[in-house]
Amino acid sequence: MAKKSPLRKCVGCGEMIAKKEMLRVVKTKENEVLLDITGKMNGRGAYLHFSKECFDKAVKSKGLERSFKMSISPEVYEKLSEEMIDIGE
Q1: pTM of the model
Q2: Using H for helix, E for strand and C for coil, what is the string for 12-51?
Q3: DSSP label at 70?
């Protein structure tokens, strides 16, 4: 029997999808919000589709802020957006 891949909910659109197909955003103990390309960084994780639309929805709906129980500055969102573009949507 094939091993089932864990599902995660996109904080942008709310769709459940395989963890491996998503981008992990992590909040560290220092309250930094970073993209976690490896998926193994320590900290609280939230997941997004690899799409600008879902990222924009998460910003608008404050999905990441709810997941991390903290407010996130526009500068941090800007940095995350640039990093997403670097990864290559």
Answers
A1: 0.88
A2: CCCCEEEHHHCEEEEECCCCCEEEECCCCCCCEEEEECCC
A3: S
Number of H-type helices and E-type strands within the chain? 3, 5
Place of tokens 């197909």: 21
Is residue 18 a contact partner of residue 24, using CB atoms and an 8 Å limit?
Answer: no
* Domain 7-87 indexed as CATH 3.30.1230.10: yes
Q: Looking at the predicted structure, is the pLDDT value of residue 84 above 90?
A: no
Helix (H, G, I), strand (E, B) or coil at 84: helix
**Closest alpha carbon to 78 in 39, 33, 24:** 33
Task: Give 12 or 85, the one with higher predicted confidence.
Answer: 12
